[in-house]
Amino acid sequence: MNAVFVLGVVVSAVVTAGCGSPPAAPAGSSSAETTAAAAPSATTSPPSAAAGPVVNVTIAAGVVTPTNAEVDAAVGQPIVLEVSSDTTDTIHVHSIPERVFDVQPLPGQRFEFSVGIPGRVDVELHDLNRTVVTIVVRP
Ligand SMILES: [Cu+2]
User: Fold this and answer.
1) CB neighbour list of residue 134: distance below 8 Å, 6 or more residues apart
2) Per-residue pLDDT tens digits for 35-77
3) What is the percentage of the chain residues whose pLDDT exceeds 90?
4) Which residues in 33-42 are b (16+ Cβ under 10 Å) and which e?
5) pLDDT higher for 64 or 29?
6) How far is the CA of 18 from the CAs of 2, 14, 134, in angstroms?
7) C-alpha of residue 135 to centroid of ligand 1, in Å
8) Could you give the CA distance from residue 16 to residue 33 in angstroms, rounded to a whole number?
């Protein structure tokens, strides 16, 4: 009789790293860097970074608005977080490399960044432990 090979649990190591552990950055030169070798067909968005999404974030009395929102962006496109807050906090952008912004108790703070690798990037407030928005980054 043949032994029955059960497919092992391969997935669990990658999923939901969360805040505790930084995302595993690919060490070494993998295929991550895209040099825009062949754009298949330029449909709508021009390659030169057009205006990206602007996410308005309000932190008031311990309540974040929005939470678990989702916006689209393209690789390299500027993404702006406009934050009004009544307290200090830390914004953690789970991109590679990750980015951290210090929130002050002020209106109209503006944090701009871009993402170089396609995928889903969570933007979190660490003190309040909320995911504000997930940015879906297209290639
Ligand atoms: Cu985080």
Assistant:
1) 68, 69, 70, 71, 120, 121, 122, 123
2) 444 444 444 444 455 789 999 999 999 999 999 999 999 999 9
3) 63
4) eeeeeeeeee
5) 64
6) 40, 10, 13
7) 14
8) 24
Ligand 1 centroid – CA 6 distance (Å): 34
* Ligand 1 mean position, distance from CA 42 (Å): 34
Rounded Cα distance, 44 and 61, in Å: 41
pLDDT at position 38, please? 44
Note the pLDDT of residue 20. Answer: 63
User: Which one-letter amino acid corresponds to residue 75?
Assistant: V
Cα of 124 to ligand 1 centre, how many Å? Answer: 5
Taking the centre of ligand 1 as the mean of its atom positions, its distance from the CA of residue 19, in whole angstroms, is: 4
Q: Does residue 112 carry a pLDDT above 70? A: yes
CATH 2.60.40.420 corresponds to the domain 54-138: yes
The one-letter amino acid code at 62 reads G
Q: Cα–chain-centroid distance for residue 104?
A: 21
Among residues 127, 2, 121, which one has the least CA distance to residue 53? Answer: 121
Whole-prediction pTM: 0.68
